[in-house]
């Protein structure tokens, strides 16, 4: 077996030739950050952007099982006459307190696709990011597209509230709820109206489905009307019921985005957010360097002596 290269360009060439080990190493570079991650991003951002679908929702809503069923639907058909794309799944898991990596709980529920050469599944750790979305995920989505995977499904970790960060990283956002999930007021507070393109009432074999749909419909009726009204789909992921209709709803939203020109607008907004994210990260590094310097120590002493207030001290340090 040919030894695996370490250079990002050589690894990407191998990944494009369906070398999953090379792709996994590139994703590890992205997660690790630093100069190597920047070299990977330089390659990834010059390639095609894959169609991305985000699944988000509260813990226990059945997102992982639903993702597993969606993979089968994507592989079974595509809304265009072109070749059926390969599929990637980014399962954003909680961070292990021991290794700092993903706990891998979500991947266990996608076991039937582990040996499928057309499907690539990767867990990524949240690394303490409260939005439920790893900061490396946008770069990872780009990398997967550069490696030739046409559809990327991002399934976010449940963090106790509906996480909304996925909306800035995916073309279509699917919000998963369950019967008895709560009323419309709670939904509005959770920010669902701002992020959902498709609603899924999963575990629809349980009581309370009619009430959950009513709450969602009322919430949508009160929302500001737009060109796209989020569809509501009922599924039972464990048995596969309704999953085909869910994928059709996602495909209809994709067609709407393409036909209205909103896909390009969304991706432009996403690039702006990604640039802002990088600027903040680079600025944080500069601030850490400043904090380690003598000027910062002097400013702290001046603050403690009452000679400066924090705002004056910050302005002085930034000016230097």
List descriptors.
320 residues, alpha/beta, Rossmann fold, 3 domains, seven-stranded parallel beta sheet, 7 strands
Mean pLDDT: 83
- Shape descriptor reads globular
CATH class of the largest domain: Alpha Beta
Euclidean distance between termini CA atoms: 55 Å
Task: Fill in the CATH topology of the largest domain.
Answer: Rossmann fold
Number of helices: 12
Residue share in β-strands? 5-15%
The helix content is 40-55%
What is the topology?
Layout (H helix, E strand, L loop, with lengths): L7 H9 L3 H13 L2 H10 L6 E7 L5 H14 L10 E7 L25 E7 L11 H10 L4 E5 L16 E6 L6 H6 L2 H4 L2 E4 L7 H14 L8 E4 L8 H18 L1 H30 L2 H11 L5 H10 L1
Parallel strand pairs: 1-4, 1-5, 2-3, 2-4, 5-6, 6-7
Helix pairs in contact: 1-2, 2-3, 2-5, 3-5, 4-9, 11-12
Would you mind describing this structure in some detail?
The protein is of the alpha/beta class. It contains twelve helices and seven strands. It folds into three domains: 45 residues, no CATH class; 214 residues, Rossmann fold, CATH 3.40.50; 48 residues, no CATH class. 47% of the residues lie in helices and 12% in strands. The protein is globular, with a radius of gyration of 22 Å. About 6% of the residues have low confidence.
């Amino acid at each position: 077996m040919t030894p695996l290269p370490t250079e990002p360009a050589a690894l990407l060439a191998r990944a494009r030739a369906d070398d999953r080990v090379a792709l996994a190493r590139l994703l590890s570079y992205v997660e690790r950050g630093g100069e190597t991650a920047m070299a990977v991003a330089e390659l990834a951002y010059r390639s095609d952007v894959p169609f991305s679908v985000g699944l988000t929702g509260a813990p226990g809503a059945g997102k992982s099982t639903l993702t597993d069923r969606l993979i089968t639907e994507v592989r079974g058909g595509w809304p265009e006459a072109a070749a059926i794309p390969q599929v990637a799944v980014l399962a954003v898991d909680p961070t292990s307190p021991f290794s700092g990596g993903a706990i891998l709980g979500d991947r266990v529920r996608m076991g039937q696709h582990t040996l499928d050469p057309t499907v690539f599944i990767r867990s990524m750790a949240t690394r303490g990011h409260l939005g439920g979305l790893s900061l490396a995920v946008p770069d990872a989505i780009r990398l997967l597209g550069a490696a030739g995977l046409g559809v990327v499904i991002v399934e976010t970790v449940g963090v106790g509230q509906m996480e909304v960060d996925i909306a800035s990283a995916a073309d279509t956002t699917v919000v998963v709820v369950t019967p008895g999930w709560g009323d419309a007021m709670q939904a509005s507070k959770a920010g669902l109206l701002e992020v959902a393109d498709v609603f899924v009432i999963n575990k629809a074999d349980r009581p309370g489905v009619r009430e959950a749909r009513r709450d969602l419909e009322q919430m949508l009726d009160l929302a500001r009307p737009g060109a796209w009204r989020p569809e509501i789909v009922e599924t039972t992921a464990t048995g596969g019921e309704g999953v085909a209709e869910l994928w059709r709803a996602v495909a209809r939203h994709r067609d709407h985005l393409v036909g209205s020109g909103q896909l390009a607008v969304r991706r432009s907004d996403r690039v702006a957010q990604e640039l802002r994210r990088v600027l903040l990260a680079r600025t944080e590094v500069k601030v850490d360097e400043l904090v380690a310097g003598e000027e910062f120590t002097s400013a702290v002493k001046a603050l403690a002596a009452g000679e400066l207030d924090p705002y004056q001290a910050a302005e002085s340090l930034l000016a230097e």
